[in-house]
Request: fold
Amino acid sequence: MNTIGILGAGRVGTNLAGKLSEAGHHVVLGSRSPTEGTAAAAEGTGPRFSVTDQRTTARISDIVINATPGDSALDRLAALRTELAGKILIDVSNATRDAGDGLPGDLCYPGSSLAEQLQAALPDTHVVKTLNTMLFMVMTAPGTLATPPTAYLSGNDEHAKETVAALLGDLGWQPAWIENLGDITTARATESMILLVPHILRRHGFQPFAVSLAR
Reply:
């Protein structure tokens, strides 16, 4: 199994860490406050994972997941260019500016995407965009939805996307639910879907859902 590093110790990062650890991967959670992250990890009753700082996480991991806030992720990850060189970076974040109620209101990179910006800043890293079109609990429990959800893949390297698709399988995603959209520029389409999310949340509350294809 790979060593998987997850940058970001919030709900998204810890949710992914628990499920991937349960699947047998060695998981390292990278937190800006490792002591707080350790305490949060210890509270759970499921699989355990180690917690350290984000630079160390990026350096010691084979595959890295960006689960940090999208509006500040570019500068944070660009500073880890050396540590991320030659590795797969899975970007599950959306770069948005908040509306008055704290929900996403606008895109930080209109006409582009966070994934494209990361790929440009990290030319020696294989960036793959996925899992950014759903609430975080669906990422690790897609089968709980009444309708099969879709996980979109965007990235320039086909082998990297195949590796990510295999990891999605460990999270419960069936192959038929995974849609390979093409190169990294296709991420701007899935990232723009975030603008739909706040309207759904305002009407229905924080109920699990995904923006998916119906066939």
Observations:
- The chain is about 40% helix and 20% strand.
- The longest helix spans residues 158-170.
